[in-house]
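haha ok so turns out i had the wrong file open the whole time. this is the CORRECT one, sorry everyone. sequence first:
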Amino acid sequence: MHRRTRADYRDITLVDTVPGIVAPGIMTALVIMVAAAVLGKTGAEAGTINALAAVFEPLAGPVGSLVFALGLSGAAFSSMIANATAGGTMFSDALGRGAKAGSPTARIVTGIILAFGLAITLSFQASPVGLIVIAQSLTVLIAPFLGVLIVIMANKTSIMGDLRNKWWQNLFAAIGLIAIVASSLRLITVLLK
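then structure:
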């Protein structure tokens, strides 16, 4: 098992965690604002990829669709490769077969994850927007469980040592958990209507 040092946590937080939370948050907020402005004004629904791409045309003109396509492709490929590799590496590490992405077990599991994603994508060709909505819905439904696990791990002295959460960090964690549980409950009520 690879143990991290105090310096590792600081470096990871400053270089990876904070930008990894802030940058996607800003991008998501911008996409939501543009979509709300355009769709709210026209009253249209974005039921297809072409309709989604058209959302950016009032802002960027004829290149809006190209900007959307490039952004969607970049987001899809970066998420797909990074998440599959992370999943493969964690699974390999959990089995005790190597904690590196280059280990044989991690590569095999990563390949299986990518093949599964490809199979799902090819199966839903008729409604790619519906597939995106389903994937995001599953993310929102799973998030509370992951949030609880993160808070539990962050408070275990056996894992975190003297870096375990302080009371004020647990306060922010509780606020975050309440927000994601509320989002999940809202989604469930919308889906059940």
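The longest helix spans residues 6-42.
again sry for the mixup
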